[in-house]
Amino acid sequence: MTTAIQSHPKPAIRDPLPQQSDSSQTWDNNINPFEEWAGNPFDSQDLSGLESPKIVVETIADHGEELHPEPDEPRSSQPSNFTLRRLLLTPQVGIALALVLGSVYALTRPCVIGECTAIDQAKAYSQSAEEILQTVSSSKAPGLAKEDMDAAIAELEKIPFWSPYYGPARRLLSNYRQESQELGAVVTALRFAGQAFQQGQNAPYTVAEWEKLKNLWENAIAQLQQIPIESLIYPFAQDRLNQYQDALTEVRGRLIVEREAQEILKRAKQAAQVATARQGVAQQVDSWQLVYDTWQQATNTLTSVPVGTTAHQDAQLLLARYQPKLEAARDRKTIEQVGQEAYTRAVNSAEQAKILSERGAWSEAVKYWSRAVSYGKKIPQSSSYVMEMKPLMESYTQSWKQAEAQNQLTTRLNKARQDLKKTCGGAVTICSYSVNKDLITVRITPAYLEKIETTAKQGDQTGNEKPRSEAEKHVQTLKIALETISDNAQIPLEVYKPDGQKIGVHIP
Question: Is domain 339-408 given the CATH code 1.20.58.80 in the classification?
Answer without folding.
Answer: yes
